[in-house]
Write a structure and sequence with these properties.
Layout lengths: L12 E5 L3 H4 L1 H14 L2 E5 L12 E3 L6 H14 L5 H7 E2 L1 H8 L4 H8 L3 H12 L4 E5 L1 H4 L4 H14 L10 E3 L6 H6 L16 H11 L12 H9 L5 E5 L3 H4 L3 H9 L3 E6 L11 E4 L8 E4 L4 E5 L12 H11 L9 H11 L16 E2 L23 E2 L18 E6 L15 H6 L4 E4 L1 H6 L7 E5 L4 E8 L7 E5 L12 E4 L6 E2 L3 E7 L2
Parallel strand pairs: 1-2, 1-5, 2-3, 4-13, 5-6, 7-8, 8-9, 14-18, 15-17
Antiparallel strand pairs: 10-11, 11-12, 14-21, 16-17, 16-21, 19-20
Helix pairs in contact: 3-6, 3-7, 3-9, 6-7, 12-14
Length: about 525
């Protein structure tokens, strides 16, 4: 997030898109609700489904799946036409505006309505509301990123924030809500194939030499590694032989699971390191038991870039060990004497090689975390990014065209499928499905169906149906819910039985490599 969670309450207008905030981020959603109830904030929700946040919305736009660039461009077209843009911010803080403006010319409200299904007058109302805000906050989640155009979607939201001068100010910003605990910290620590910590490029020889000096080694590669979504196809084709998975359950969470399963089975060697015997761990040659969050010391970095202490509350059971200890022991057996006294020693090394963390110490975050960047020991941290300039200097407007999803409905597969989460289960259920109370509230997979589609296909609440895509088939119960949208099914992806990802499309965003989980074509039939 460019801004903080608490800062959401200072916004005049909050635009929420691709985020079922009250179910996926229930604590954070309370800040939105308080902003509305106590501070008079206005909310724009952009979501095909009637999610709970629509109850707090002044404007609710229901776009067709996979049309985000189109409606965002449409908003910006209206803002420019009605001169609601921030001319001073654009002049002093950005570049690329002319080409960007030219690209928006065709995205009239009427043109956008033809793509998105959003009525022109609704689009205009949303544009006027957002442009009129003194501080406009944009919140988004994986409903924006999990598309073949996910990178373009994010750039388009950045365009909107810059166009209206909502960067670097309290109550503004572009604020991605992270999908899992410490995802931000994992990325910060170089858990990506193209960067070291703090997003320092692997391909930069100077950065490689800096890391060599820090670690007392030589010959670090400047070659960019493989993304997860590049590894599995190579495993399927026999080019990729071994895989080591830590804290992830791709046999439920990956797109096109039938293909993923074949890929895993084609590996020569699979190691899984986790806290429970997951669906993926059951396929492994070796399973390494690791400590969970409540059994370890260290730091987490949350969705607002706040680096916080984590303290051991209970002792790990049996042979479970800290992840870092397991990594070090494997490194030793492979010939590199990787050794640390404890997690604090690791964090001290992090601060030496990570510019944005350089000023953070255990003492400084003993009671409260600090927001990176925090480059020096006397720096107060940076709750709001880009207040004076962007990382690259001037912010770049990107001229972006809408492209359709990789898969369209047709006569054979006449319905769209989208996936997501529910309040009572988390990710693949590795932890939450150990709780009977949570299982009582969300016991199984289901297909959320609109009343129109239920009538069309002669379905009743609780019926079993088979849902098939070009990649697989599952059997689930029907739930006829008012939040559903006609022509689209929604299935939560948490459940291994009735796994939604047996259906989803593995088509990738060409930049991020994220699959298009949020749109694919399916057909349904009553189960025998």
């Amino acid at each position: 997030m460019t801004n903080t969670i608490a800062d959401i309450e200072t916004a005049d207008v909050i635009l929420i898109t691709g985020s079922n905030t009250s179910e996926n981020h229930p604590v954070l959603s309370s800040f939105v609700k308080r902003a509305v109830k106590f501070h008079g904030a206005k909310v724009i929700v952009v979501d095909p489904r009637r999610i709970q946040m629509t109850e707090f919305a002044d404007v609710w736009l229901r776009p067709n799946l996979g049309t985000d660039v189109a409606w965002i461009n449409g908003l910006m077209h209206v803002i420019l036409k009605e001169e609601g843009h921030d001319t001073e911010f654009i002049k002093n803080r950005t570049e690329g505006f002319d080409a960007f403006r030219q690209k928006l010319e065709k995205y009239t409200p009427e043109f956008v309505e033809g793509i998105t299904g959003i009525a022109a007058e609704q689009l205009i109302a949303a544009a006027r509301l957002f442009a009129g805000a003194k501080a406009g906050s944009i919140l988004y989640c994986m409903g924006i990123t999990q598309h073949i155009s996910g990178t373009d979607n994010v750039k388009s939201l950045a365009n909107l924030a810059m166009l209206t001068g909502n960067m670097g100010i309290a109550g503004g910003g572009v604020n991605p809500l992270r999908g899992q605990n410490n995802v931000q910290g994992a990325c910060d620590m170089g858990g990506l194939p193209n960067v070291y910590t703090a997003y320092q490029p692997v391909a930069d020889l100077a950065i490689a030499q800096k890391m060599e000096a820090a670690w007392g080694v030589s010959g670090l590669s400047t070659q960019i590694g493989l993304k997860v979504t590049e590894m599995l196809p190579k495993a399927h084709d026999g080019q990729f032989k071994a895989l080591y998975i830590i804290g992830e359950n791709p046999m439920v969470s990956d797109a096109d699971l039938n293909h993923a399963e074949k890929s895993f089975k084609n590996l020569d060697f699979l190691v899984v390191q986790d806290i429970f015997m997951t669906e993926t761990a059951r396929m492994a040659d070796v399973v390494l038991p690791s400590a969970c969050f409540a059994e370890k010391e260290g730091t987490f970095s949350n969705t607002e870039r706040r680096v916080q202490r984590v303290r051991r509350a209970v002792t790990p059971p049996g042979g479970a060990r800290d992840d870092w200890w397991i990594t070090c022991e494997i490194a030793k057996r492979m010939g590199y004497a990787m050794q640390y006294a404890d997690s604090r020693a690791i964090f001290e090394e992090i601060t030496r090689v990570t510019p944005s963390y350089a000023g953070i110490t255990y003492e400084r975050i003993e009671n409260q975390g600090l927001h990176w960047p925090c480059p020096t020991p006397d720096h107060p941290g940076t709750p709001i990014l880009h207040s004076q300039q962007f990382t690259r200097g001037l912010g770049m407007f990107h001229a972006i065209d809408w492209i359709p999803p990789a898969e369209q409905v047709d006569e054979a597969y006449p319905l769209y499928l989208t996936t997501g989460r529910v309040l009572y289960q988390y990710h693949t259920g590795t932890m939450t499905m150990k709780s009977q109370d949570l299982n009582d509230r969300a016991p199984e997979a289901y297909a959320e169906v609109s009343r129109q589609d239920a009538d069309k296909y002669d379905l009743k609440e609780g019926d079993h149906i088979t849902i098939a895509s070009r990649r697989g088939e599952i059997r689930v119960r029907v739930r006829i819910l008012p939040k559903a949208v006609a022509g689209t099914l929604f299935i939560p992806f948490h459940f291994a039985e009735g796994a939604a990802n047996k259906l989803t499309n593995a088509a990738l965003d060409p930049v991020s490599g994220i699959p298009e989980f949020k749109v694919c074509a399916v057909k349904i039939a009553k189960a025998a």
